[in-house]
Amino acid sequence: MRSRHFSVVAFVLTSLLAWAAPASAEWSELVKEDEATYYFDKEAVMPVHVSRYAWVLTDLPKGEKTPTGENYKSMMLRVRMYCKNDTVVRLSVSYFDKQMGKGKEVASDDVHEWRPRESAIRPNTYLAALKKEVCGSKAAAG
């Protein structure tokens, strides 16, 4: 009985840590442009076969509005990057009222992975930079 209780507690704590990982991430800069700065969390990259799951943080100096009209200054995006065919799928996005994913989450949107909509990775974009980081030979080995 005691080991079952421990297993349940361990599962709950592990789930909470996995959920909190993006909030306590150490963001590495990918691309800095006039209209936005893009970061990714190296430690949270998860390889699955020939694809990689990754978190991307976008900081906006001026702020924008969500599709529902809320003001935001940063957003966290969860993507699945297909390394072999040069495509990416957006899985989840959260919008925050402060930069670096801080403050209040003003809106979010989750995409069901069983109906992914793959998009091509265009050259010279933050997604191309992300692909280079997470699908490169060093990243693929680890």
UniProtKB/TrEMBL annotation:
Family matches, as Pfam families: Adhesin_E
Domain Surface-adhesin protein E-like: 27-136
Signal peptide as annotated in the record: 1-20
Keywords: Signal
Origin: domain of life: Bacteria
Protein name: Surface-adhesin protein E-like domain-containing protein
Species: Limnohabitans curvus
